[in-house]
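>> Question from a student workshop board

For tomorrow's exercise we were told to take the sequence and the ligand below, predict the bound structure, and bring the output to class. My setup keeps failing. Could a helper post the expected result so I can at least see what it should look like? The ligand is zinc ion.
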Amino acid sequence: MRIGIDLGGSHIETGLIDGDKIVDQIEKNFVQEDRKNIRNVIVETAITMINQILENNNLTKKDIEIIGISSPGIISKKTIIKATNLSLEEFCLCEALEEETGINTQIRNDAKCAALAEKKYGSLKNYEDAVFVGIGTGIGGAVFLNGKLLEPDMNEGFEIGHMIIEANGRPCSCGKRGCFEAYASIRALKQRVTKILGISSDISGQYLRENLLILDNKEVQDEVESFLNYLKIGLRKFNRYF
Ligand SMILES: [Zn+2]
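>> Workshop helper replied:
Here is what the output should look like for this input. Compare the format with yours to find the bug.
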């Protein structure tokens, strides 16, 4: 049995994996309040979820071979070097979980994790050369050449979300302006749409998709149109590199 943790810019999800199957999972969306003390919230939530999953399935820590974490941002060995969407720098999440659980814990960039999953089980299964783009709170990318995932030392996570697509454009969480993810991430769309509707942006991507994007509201639909246009611009630019 293994445990997988998906750390995102807006949520954390923990799953129990038996062979190739997810047999149990728990999810929590971050709220604004969590961001004040995000390191503690992440560690405490992950530990609570692990214990909950063990208890639900009548397991002990000894039954778990490994914990694998997928995290946004730049990862080196077992440390999150920088994840701007979570305002994290030099964060040793693996160490904190290992200390608490005694279980070997590994971490990798989330776009790479998702790309590897698509290569093994999904849409990239039959392709040797491919670019993968993950659109969530931020935007991440990964590249396969001759069937092999590129893992450059520099630009480790293909931080394509911070590729400039608009000179002097919208401000980004990284401190620059005009980044791809300031226009074409789910967070950007969420912020624009909730502002138009005058509601809190503390909503899940699922709620946005199922309740707000379908509204018969001209301003919302224009925003979706503009989001898709920026997405095309960014994808074209990324694809051009390869
Ligand atoms: Zn940026």
